[in-house]
Structure to design on (244 residues):
């Protein structure tokens, strides 16, 4: 009997890998392809664009999920359905502390679940945390990254956004995104190992000390951060210790 494709991502178990990188932007899938060999296009349906490739001897899926928790949640569930055991998000973030520059990598040690979707799975008091082994490998390959708690939210244009971000900044939150809370919460429910690696693309409000040069050179710094974040995820997923 022929296996049916997953309805949104069009994945099947024929991908034959336990490891995936998820990104928000479909264009970032093409950036990942440049770092891999033997790249094979898999599917492009709605916001879900996927490829398969090899990196350091490891077969890895890269798939886009679009923006926000709901589409990310669908992607994670369908990855689980085709036997993916490890999923690393490579995305972008806005800094929530001063001193975090364009292109700096922010790696979430945990997530404030300020999104709506993850609450449909478990109560708010349930923690969203990454897999210890993936986090340990992040420290191995990127000891210079910014590590801390991040916040996942559902929108950019609410009237109280600045006030809300200022509140969470005072609590030590290092960055904000829209997908990591859903990834880690759903992943944990499905017995998947997860991690979130974020490229900083927005300086924290009021961080004028970063200087004019950072603003002028921001585009190239962010492009370098995007490449570094993808390479870090590939290095982690291909680390021999995960096969032990």
């Amino acid at each position: 009997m022929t296996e049916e494709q997953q309805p949104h991502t069009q994945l099947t178990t024929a991908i034959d890998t336990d490891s995936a990188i998820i990104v928000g932007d479909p264009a970032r899938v093409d950036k990942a392809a440049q770092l891999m060999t033997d790249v094979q296009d898999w599917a492009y349906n709605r916001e879900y664009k996927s490829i398969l490739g090899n990196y350091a001897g490891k077969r890895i899926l890269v798939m886009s999920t679009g923006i926000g928790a709901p589409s990310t949640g669908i992607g994670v569930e369908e990855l689980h359905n085709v036997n993916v055991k490890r999923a690393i998000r490579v995305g972008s973030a806005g800094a929530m502390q001063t001193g975090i520059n364009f292109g700096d990598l922010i790696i979430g040690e945990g997530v404030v679940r300020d999104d709506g979707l993850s609450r449909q799975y478990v109560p708010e008091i349930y923690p969203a945390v990454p897999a210890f082994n993936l986090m340990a490998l992040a420290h191995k390959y990127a000891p210079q990254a910014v590590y801390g708690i991040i916040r996942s939210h559902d929108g950019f244009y609410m009237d109280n956004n600045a006030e809300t971000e200022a509140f969470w900044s005072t609590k030590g939150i290092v960055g904000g995104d829209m997908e990591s809370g859903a990834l880690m919460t759903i992943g944990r429910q499905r017995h998947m190992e997860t991690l979130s690696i974020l490229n900083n693309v927005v300086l924290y409000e009021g961080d004028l000390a970063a200087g004019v040069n950072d603003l002028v050179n921001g585009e190239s710094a962010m492009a370098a951060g995007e490449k570094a974040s993808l390479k870090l995820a590939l290095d982690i997923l291909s680390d021999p210790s995960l096969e032990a």
